[in-house]
Amino acid sequence: MSDTELIDKFYIDHDSEWLGILLQRYTLLLLGTCMKYLKDEEEAKDSVQQIFVKAITEIQKKYKIDYFKSWLYIIARNYCLMKLRNKRDYIPIEEKTQVIAEENKLEISEKEKRLSLIEASIVELNEEQKTCVTLFYLERKSYTEIATITNNSLLQVKSNIQNGKRNLKILVEKKIKKMNGE
Q1: Tag placement on the chain: N or C end, fewer CB within 10 Å?
Q2: Cα(154)–Cα(147) distance, rounded to whole angstroms?
Q3: Using one digit for the tens of pLDDT, what is the confidence trace for 123-145?
Q4: Taking the alpha carbons of 24, 28, 31, 37 in that order, is the dihedral positive or negative?
């Protein structure tokens, strides 16, 4: 009997044996679909059972199902996606807090390392670059203010900041490579 004939027989006499035959036909399809999404055999087997229950509940709502195999596949896919979404979203609050705290510690530690490398590298710049970079980035002075303080033109100030920044980057990268043993 075709899928449509089995569904029609179920609608006529409400005998769940027809649904059983229908669902049994697609057990391997469902298992394969669940394995594809969930990547865990036991979880996939459990999911197939849950999908059977969902399919039986949905089919009793008496709307017309033209292509049972496609309809069942969609139910299985949606079930698996929802399961994955719930799994991804659920992390106990204690674990979330712990993970965030660990990330923050690592982030702060990395920033402190970078700042100390920058600090150690600034002293290696020539005097003009060191002064301009310090005034611009650390003391938040404008180009005009720096030009007044250093008695340099705006063009010289801009050049010293750009060259100082580039040289500082090179010095910091060298120190990082040295720390990493490269």
Answers
A1: C
A2: 6
A3: 899 999 999 998 998 888 999 99
A4: negative
Q: What is the pLDDT of residues 83-118, one digit of tens each?
A: 888 876 555 555 556 666 666 666 777 777 777 888
133 burial class (0-12, 13-18, 19+ CB within 10 angstroms)?
A: buried
CATH number of 93-179: 1.10.10.10
Region(s) of the chain under CATH 1.10.1740.10: 3-89
> Look-up: residue for tokens 């720096």?
146
Reported as type and span, the H/E element at residue 116 is: helix 93-122
Q: Domain spanning 3-89: which CATH class is it, in words?
A: mainly alpha
Burial of 54 (0-12, 13-18, 19+ CB in 10 A): middle
Helix axes 16-25 and 3-13, enclosed angle (nearest 10): 160
A 10 A CB-CB count for 135 gives: 20
